[in-house]
Design brief:
elongated; 7 helices; alpha+beta; eleven-stranded antiparallel beta sheet
């Protein structure tokens, strides 16, 4: 009886262990399956495995916008840059864009000055490179512009400091202190021959000095040296007020003379060109020796008017009147020799800088209401 009971007990234990094992085998046998037996993933399953975190970005594509690029945070916050804290002297994209729109329609020189003020107000601007590039462009534009007509020089911001290149008279004195070489000659009836060679050098914008040889109404040629000082020289108002001081030495006979004068010039717009008007006057104070060799002080009144019209950058027409008078105590009136001059000039400009390079003139002179006789001639 003992053996059968033991067998029964063993069978019961075996049955108890087997039943849980069989139950677990039904639920967990998928862990033992090969990956080849698993179902393949479809495109829908792959989209789901990407997660739901990116689904909000589809709204940008549905509305036609691009997805934001988070590599550059400045692009993301560009439209809301006003909320960003700014340091002292720093601007924002909104301030910069608004200012650029305001100054866009200004002339080149005024826009350059406006950007200069902007840089002083915002010295730590984050758009410094763009502003400096714009200033370089404006500077090139100013250099290529013609601020005061065909014989002016452009490119600087202060128009009051530009050169005028005012019209050069024929018989009168130059009133614009610039560097130039003047060579000319005259032939008249019955046997009149005259000439001039003069070199003028600009020392400052308002000051020049010159030396030359020419023949005036006094006997023979004379050596002349002198200076031109522009008391007023403004390209903004296009005005000249010039003091002229010359010393000349007569060569045959030898005598000294001083020629102080004052001149005023003004430029006016005429159509597409301009008109230069100038008036000058002063004295030629000579010490010419008489027949006995005594030096006589004889002040003479000199001066005149010049009108030069420049309709384009190639030609200039001019009309000029000059006067020379002395011996005001004579009963029959003073010695008077007035000359009317008219002519044409051909202009040549430097193509790169726009400055006047040379001018070639042809003119005719005619005496107007002269009054002289043999006893005046010296």
């Amino acid at each position: 009886m003992v053996w059968p009971l033991s067998r029964s007990l063993l069978c019961a234990v075996a049955l108890f262990v087997a039943v849980p094992a069989l139950a677990q085998d039904d639920d967990d046998d998928w862990l033992l399956e090969d990956e080849e037996d698993l179902p393949e993933k479809g495109e829908d399953d792959e989209e789901k495995e990407r997660g739901e975190d990116e689904s909000w970005m589809d709204d940008f594509e549905e509305e036609g916008d691009e997805r934001p690029d988070f590599d550059d945070e400045s692009d993301f916050f560009e439209e809301d840059d006003e909320v960003r804290p700014r340091g002292e002297g720093e601007d924002t994209a909104t301030i910069y864009r608004q200012f650029a729109e305001e100054v866009r329609a200004l002339p080149a020189d005024e826009e350059a000055l406006a950007w200069d003020r902007y840089m002083r107000e915002y010295p730590n601007t984050i758009f410094r490179d763009s502003i400096e590039e714009r200033l370089t462009t404006l500077e090139r534009e100013m250099f290529s512009q013609d601020l005061d007509g065909p014989d002016s020089i452009a490119g600087q911001r202060d128009a009051a400091r530009q050169e005028l290149y005012f019209a050069q008279p024929v018989g009168l004195e130059n009133i614009d202190p610039i560097t130039k070489l003047r060579v000319g000659g005259e032939i008249g009836l019955p046997n009149y021959v005259n000439g001039i060679v003069d070199y003028e050098r600009q020392l400052l914008r308002e000051l020049s000095a010159h030396i030359g040889i020419r023949n005036r109404l006094t006997p023979g040629f004379s050596l002349e040296v002198g200076a031109r000082y522009a008391i007023v020289k403004s390209a903004r108002t296009r005005t000249l007020v010039t003091a002229i001081g010359d010393f000349r030495l007569g060569l045959s006979p030898a005598f000294p003379a001083i020629r102080p004068q004052l001149a005023v010039g003004q430029r006016f717009d005429v159509g597409d060109g301009f008109l230069d008007v100038q008036v000058q006057g002063g004295s030629d104070m000579t010490f010419i020796p008489d027949n006995e060799g005594n030096a006589l002080f004889e002040p003479r009144v000199v001066g005149g008017v010049n009108l030069s019209l420049t309709p384009n950058d190639q030609i200039r027409v001019f009309l000029e009147g000059s006067t020379y008078m002395k011996d005001f105590g004579f009963e029959s009136g003073p010695f008077r020799y007035n000359v009317m001059t008219f002519g044409l000039k051909i202009l040549r400009f430097n193509e790169r800088t726009g400055t006047l390079k040379a001018e070639y003139a042809a003119a005719a002179n005619a005496p107007i209401a002269p009054n002289y006789w043999s006893q005046h001639q010296r």
